[in-house]
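Usage example:
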Amino acid sequence: MSYKKSWAEPYKIKMVELIKMTTRKDRLKAIKVAGYNTFLLRSEDVYIDLLTDSGTNAMSDIQWGAFMTGDEAYAGSKSFFKMEAAIQKYYGYKYIIPTHQGRGAENILSKVLIKNGDIIPGNMYFTTTRLHQELAGGIFKDVIIEEAHDPLNEHPFKGNVDIQKLHQLVQEYGSAKIPYISVATNVNMAGGQPISMANLRELYAYTRQHGIRIIHDMTRVAENAYFIQKRETGYAHKSIAEIVKEICSYTDGATMSAKKDALVNIGGFLATNEWDVYEEARNLVVVYEGLHTYGGLAGRDMEAIAIGIQESLDDNHQHARVGQVEYLGHKMMEYGIPIVKPIGGHGIFVDAKSFLPHLTQDQYPAQALAAEIYLDSGVRAMERGVVSAGRNENGDNYYPNLELVRLTIPRRVYTQAHMDVVAESVASVFQKRKTIKGLKMVYEPKYLRFFQARFEKL
Ligand code: F0G
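Running the assembly step on the lines above writes:
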C-alpha cells in the first residue's frame, strides 16, 4: 500500500484577499433582502463563495505578469495572435473568433448555423447554450445517456451521448434539419460528468455518415481529459494535453467559456474548422462583440487566456484541481449527505430531492437548500434544478429529474480547511433538514430566470 495519495497543490500563495466574517443575524437579513436567491447576495456578505467556478479562478504570477504586456490596439493586437496560436496549438482548431465570454460565442454560432425549426441535439442542456439555440429558432433535444439523469448511478462516463437517441432524431426529422449536435465535455448540468473518448469516436463516425457537425462546448475540456486519463482503458499514460487534442480532433468547431478551465476571470471564443462558418461569424462578431481581433476582450485578457490554456493542461494542476473537489465530496459522503455520483470535476452537486424529501419540486427544494446553507455558514452555493431549467416554448415549466444544489469550486482559490468548513456546514444543515421549509417564486424574469428570480418562504 502506498501512503502517497495527496493531491496537494503544485503552487504556493503569494497574495491573499481578506474576507469579511458575518454572523447568522447578518446573513438572515442578507438572504431575505436577496429574495432567497444566492445570485442576488452581495459578495461581501459571503464567506466561502462556491456559487460558480466561472471567472472566479486565481491567475498565476505568470498570467498577471503578462497582463502588463497586453497590446491594447483596436485592430490586429499582438495579444490576439498569441491567443489564437495557443488555441490552434493546444486544441487544434483552425479559425478563431474571440468573444467576451462563452455565451457571446454561443450567440454568434447559433445565428450562423441554426435555421428556424432546426433540431439541436445535445448531451444535456446548458442554460445559456439552449437559450441561444432557441432564440435562433432551434429546438433542443436531449440525447445524453439515461444514466445521467440518475444522481446515484455510478456510470464512469455519464456525459456520453446515447447514439440510439440521436439516430431516432435523424430518422424522425432527417439529418438536413440537424445542423449540428452540441457536445459538452464534462457536462455541467449532469454534475460535471465526462464523456468517454470511445463514445466521442463512435459519435464522430456516426455524424460523418449523416453529414452532421459536432460543435464542442469545451468549457471544461481539461477536466474531462483528466477523467479519461484516470478511467478509460488506453489513456493512463497519455498526458492531459494529448487527450484534450484528441477530443478536439473529433469535433468540427467549439464554443468556449475561458472563465472556467482556462484559468482567467473573463473571456471566451468560437472556433471552427470551416472557412464559411468562420467568414459568417467574423461578420457577426463585429455587430455583437467587437472587432474580430478582440471580440469584447482587452489585450491583457487575451494574454492571460493564452497562458491559462497552457497551465490548464498541466497534469499536476488537474490532479490537484479535481483532487480538491473529490476531497470535499468524500467528506460530505462521510456525513451521509446525498450527492451526485461519481463525484464530478468542478463541484459537488447535492441531491436536494433526497435531502428534502418532504418538499415537492414546486416548492423549489434546491433553491431552499442553497439559501439554508448560506444562512448556516455564509457558504454560497447555487440552485441547479427546476428554477434553472426554466420554461419551454409553450411556457410550461421543465421538470428536470435532477434537482441539485451545486457547490462549485473555483480553481486555485480555496484551501483544504475551507473545504472542511463547507462539509461541516452542509452536515449541520442536514441534521436539521426536517425543519427546512419550501419557497414560492414571487418574481420571475423572462429569460434565465434563476439569475434574478425572487422567492418568499412558504
Ligand atoms: N457552457 C457551459 C457548459 C457553461 O458552464 C457555461 C457557463 C457556459 C457555456 C456559458 O459561458 O458564462 O462564459 O457565458 N457556466 C457558468 C456556470 C455560468 O456557473 O456554470 P459564459
